[in-house]
Amino acid sequence: MRLTLRTLLALRNKTLAPDDETTLTEKVRESSYAQQLLDLIANVVANAKLSALAPTATGPTDDANVMAEYIDSTLPPEQAAEVDRTCLESPIHLAEAAGSHEVLTLVLGKPADVPAPLRDRIYGLSSYTAETLDSPLPAAAAGGDGQAAQGGPQTAVPPVSLSDSGAFQAASRLQPTQISASNTVHPAAAGSTEPAIAGSRQLNAAEASEIFGDRLRTSRVVPWLVTLALVGVLAFVLKQAFEPLLHPTPTELTQNDPAAVDPAAADPQPAEPGPAEPEPAEPAPAEVVPPAATEPPAADPAAEVEASPPPPVPMPSEPAAVEPTPEPATTDSDVAAGTPPAMTDEPEVRVADASATTDDPGSNAVGTPDRAAAEPSAALARTASSNGLLLGLPGGADAQWVSLPNESPVAADTTLISPPKFRNQVTVTDRYELTLVGPAMAHLAAAGSEAELHVQLGRVLITALAADTQLTVRYGQRVATVDLPEVGTTLAIDVSAFRTPGTDPTIAENRVLVTRALAVVGPVFWQLEGAAAEEIQTGQQWSQIGDGSPEKVTLETLPPWIDGGVESAIDKTARKTLLTLVPIGDSVALPLREATHFRRAEVAALAARTLVMLGHNDVYFGTDGVLNNPDQKSYWEDHVAALKARIDLSPTAAKDLLADARSMDAANADALFRLLWDYSPEQLETGDDAFLVETLDSPQTALRVLAIEALRRVTGTSLFFKPEQESASRRKSDIKKWETKLRRGDIRWQTIPIAGATE
């Protein structure tokens, strides 16, 4: 027999069979938790100050019928488990279950003490119909023999069992009866409309009001619906009332614009003010005529005379006498102008600058065209038109990570990051295309007139757009020259860092770089610096671990990341949602931080993993950190993998992560950082396995998360431990499983990680 709350109640009230009672008593002696639960049941039943459930309670276990079926063992197993959980958490529910079970046991365990006159009256009811229940008994019926009416000696009531207490099946066992003209009692017909069971008749309004009083009420939804309707009507009325203020007409905008009232009076010297009024008008009276109704004084000849003599005018510049210059001038005026009158006037003023450009041809009043013309010369690559989220960090001390727009130039000395779940394309000098498969990080540097690709982390696809394409690829301290002989030749490069479990990531010697080059469409020629070129055929993979000797193998199937594989609906939704939260062409640090608190956990997880690639590790630590957020429990394994990849990137990255952890959680930073190292087999044998099990009971959620993830990597299982559980008493049962494995010495690596092992 299983030890459950219902069996404990039956054991407490002595309603079990002798064999079951003996078995269950032995189990209770072996379980301290069961003994504590029995004490708790006794306390809540004896507690007179404990209140009852509220009449308005609407929980799934607050229904009296649910509790009745639970006590009678007729509740479905899934609902019974929910009632068990509720009773263990709520003393009120536990008292209700225990008290009801005790009362039913007392009532059903011995015959009821019924007075003899009442018993005789009830037995005499068989001679009457339901309509005469309230009539006084005749003398003959009242003087009948009570002993004869009892129908023989009473039988003892059997004890209550677990399967059927009998208390809740009384209604189904009673059969309505009818009395015939000969006073013979027999069962009622199926079509009878007046059953003789008390309480079966529907109460009318007067009777219900007398019984229930003012406890009957209408639905609570109706007032809310009425309130919402009134609020909607009020909002519509307010919108209609303030519509003229929210959307003024163009005439009102012109009247309220101070610049359009008297431009000549506002600017007595049109040659000087560059920011407000670009230049005085050109001596072309024909072009001044169209806006005459708006600004007639702007074409004053006196102003034109003043505009041509003075050479030191700052705004007239390089547009010189070249014919195309009015176009960028018009574009700048369109951007600067905010109202229709200003848009009409500024192009005419810009035309007048053509005469003044001869005085200072070296100056440049319009900076945007020159900057746009300079970008192609400095750009090494260009982003594709179908990218998702490609992040770039230009060279410079004060540079910030920005999201690169589609079809935009990428300057030299730019670091590119493709976040997890994203694939982004970059075309380099129209000769080859790079596809960064997230998470990936690469750097574009200029080597003379050519581009040099530095793959720092992750996976990159290189596809030739021209025949005989050659490029330089750097990974770690090594440099390779790649030849792509034909258009469409594709090479896949995968660079990852490996560190032996238990070694310090801040020491460079503990880190080994694993590089793989796979010819997706070959042949590809790969030549390391100072070595001979190697030909890689289609399906062949060239690999090198650290400074070891390269080796070449043939793969039967291509890795799934080459073509993207199958993307889940959750990942697709997370990508699309994050794109709407991050502005294109602007800094991404602050929007990504805000996205870590998004209502959907998968979006917040993707934003946090992107931030750690940018070096913003502090979002993972502290009270509001990702490792302390129970909403992220489904993605903690991915978060820990992202943190481990960050500390393995370089010793500097590992030190930065430790500094961020100390700034957010100084008390636990060193322990958190140590848990990310993992543990070697020797360290586990010397006591670190006990430290991991002990950390599972830490009051800090972040420590529990990193400890269980370390145990998962070592043993391959979590034993269903829930690090988000804040109650120490509820964690104990799961921790006992790990303590058992600790005593047996089973917390050991199932497969010791080695460099170059496939995932």
UniProtKB/TrEMBL annotation:
Biased composition (Low complexity): 136-159, 257-269, 284-307, 318-331
Region (Disordered) residue spans: 136-163, 249-380
Superkingdom of source: Bacteria
Stretch forming the signal peptide: none
Protein name per Swiss-Prot or TrEMBL: Uncharacterized protein
Biased composition range(s): Pro residues: 270-283, 308-317
